[in-house]
Description:
This protein is of the alpha/beta class.
Amino acid sequence: MTWAMTEKGYSQRRACWLVGIDPRVYRYHSTRPDDADLRGRLRALASERRRFGYRRLHLLIEREGIQVNWKKLYRLYREEGLTVRKRGGRKRALGTRAPLAVPQGPNQRWSLDFVSDSLASGRRFRILNVIDDFSRECLAMVADTSISGQRVARELDWIAERRGYPCLIVSDNGSELTSNAILKWQEDRHVEWHYIAPGKPMQNGFVESFNGRLRDECLNEHVFGSLRHARSLIAAWRDDYNSNRPHTGLGGLTPHEAYERSTMDQTANRANF
């Protein structure tokens, strides 16, 4: 339409006739409100009442004096991605329902994932990787033949002793990361937990990208004679990754440099305030 009117000099009516639409349809502008306040309140209630569906949320909204048709609320509920996930037979941690926000500083969001490899003897071992999504720092790489949910919780506490607890953790829904130990850990530490959709590793892109680099640059380059040997080489690779590897996504900075710069900026902002 725009091309026909600007390039060919057709009138709006003629251009509409050529493409087969009514001029009133072309000129129409939606008068539907954006409902920003209602959306915000709906997200807040869904976060507070994680097992409430849209019907109960609708009742809570109406009790607050906000009159809204249930069909409209259901549409907003779906658009905001607040659908309640079904639980399995046993108790599992299901995590937050809120959409992921882009981290604006360190410790706002960590990502967790496992990578598997084998020793020269053929014995399998796993590596738990913990990444800060803002600075891209590898906060921990835990290598062992077995890593339970309780072990994951202990390692997270160990990181938090020197780093502080994150606002949000992102992971897949593996059994170790949806265990009762993790459920209790996140409740006791008041840390939100977001589980990506099954079969969608791209939703946890930062740690998946890190896993690819780890396998290409370290795991595929060495034959590990023992678990101790593997831990030593993996720790050396992690130190090099954090201290010496520039990232294009960080403007050419290394993860440690990105963290230090962000910390300095926050200190300066507090001083100015």
